[in-house]
Design a protein that fits this description.
Blueprint lengths: L4 E12 L2 E12 L3 E5 L6 H8 L7 E6 L2 E2 L5 H6 L2 E4 L11 H8 L7 H14 L1 H5 L10 H13 L5 E5 L7 H16 L3 E6 L2 H7 L2 E6 L2 E7 H6 L1 H6 L4
Parallel strand pairs: 3-8, 3-9, 6-7, 7-8
Antiparallel strand pairs: 1-2, 1-4, 4-5, 9-10
Helix pairs in contact: 3-6
The structure holds adenosine-5'-diphosphate and magnesium ion (MG).
Adenosine-5'-diphosphate binds next to strand 2 and helix 1.
Length: 240
């Protein structure tokens, strides 16, 4: 059976004020995949996922998710459909504890306290450091720990599609390796992932397919393996 399409962007156009950023993006994520969205700084990656999450309005085109149009829906309605964005720059509640931040992640689901407990235990299993620090204020965690908490909080919303915006940004090289292994593991446990990254090589190693954005247009797309092995891609986009 062919894997089904979970997310489809059709001719997505948007921008800020009079400034056009996305010039017609077509992109597809199938159930079970990790799809990498790559591109240099300012190419339109965050704009693309903010349009998907309902944070900024579209100028044209459509966003289809799980067989329904979601463009025009409020961001909170989109999260309820289990399309969840793990934000760039962490965006945690620094004055709340690790545990409180995790609980807030499942807010839209209205879980019983028993189900909440089960879900939190599941996150602690994935991130033992969050269990060790469950009573610590989020703002006092290291950068790497905050990133784990941000991912844990996003997982508490039980995403069918998890969108991550540059999760490796600012992490020490050793942690970057651990992070990509973890993203791979989350995917193997059943979560479909759209991974926005500047770290192209590491992303292509765990992704199934990838798209490369250049000035608001898809310059290139294909199987991650093919892109990783394409001499022109290696030269122009990967700097190898
Ligand atoms: N809030 C904003 N207001 C105006 N212009 C913006 C805003 N956010 C991003 N841009 C512009 O949109 C373009 C794409 O930005 P962005 O989507 O953040 O790129 P990326 O995530 O790939 O680095 C850039 O030219 C950037 O300056
Ligand atoms: Mg960005």
């Amino acid at each position: 059976m062919a894997p089904s399409t979970l997310l489809r962007l059709n001719n997505l156009r948007t921008g800020y004020g009079a400034h056009s950023v996305l010039e017609g993006i077509d992109l597809e994520v199938r159930t079970g995949e990790i799809v990498a969205l790559l591109g240099s700084n300012g190419s339109g990656k965050t704009t693309t996922i903010n349009a998907i999450s309902g944070v900024i309005p579209l100028w044209d085109g459509s966003v289809e998710y799980n067989d329904q149009r979601v463009d025009g829906l409020h961001p909170s309605a989109i999260v309820k459909l289990r399309l969840v964005q793990c934000a760039e720059g962490r965006q945690l509640f620094p004055q709340l504890t690790v545990l409180e931040n995790l609980k807030l992640g499942s807010y839209a689901r209205g879980l019983s306290s028993r189900d909440m407990r089960t879900e939190i235990d599941r996150i602690y299993e994935l991130f033992p450091v969050l269990l060790e620090r469950k009573s610590q204020l989020a703002g006092t965690l290291s950068g790497g720990q905050q990133q784990m908490l941000a991912i844990g909080r996003a997982l508490m919303a039980a995403p069918l599609l998890l969108i991550m915006d540059e999760p490796s940004l600012g992490l020490a090289p050793l942690l970057v390796g651990q992070l990509f292994a973890l993203i791979d593991r989350i995917n193997r446990m059943g979560t479909t992932i759209l991974l926005v990254e500047q770290n192209a090589v590491a992303s292509l190693k765990i992704a199934h397919r990838a798209y490369v954005l250049e000035s608001g247009k898809i310059a290139l797309s294909g199987a991650a393996k093919d892109l990783l092995n394409d001499p022109r891609v290696r030269d122009v986009y990967l700097g190898l």
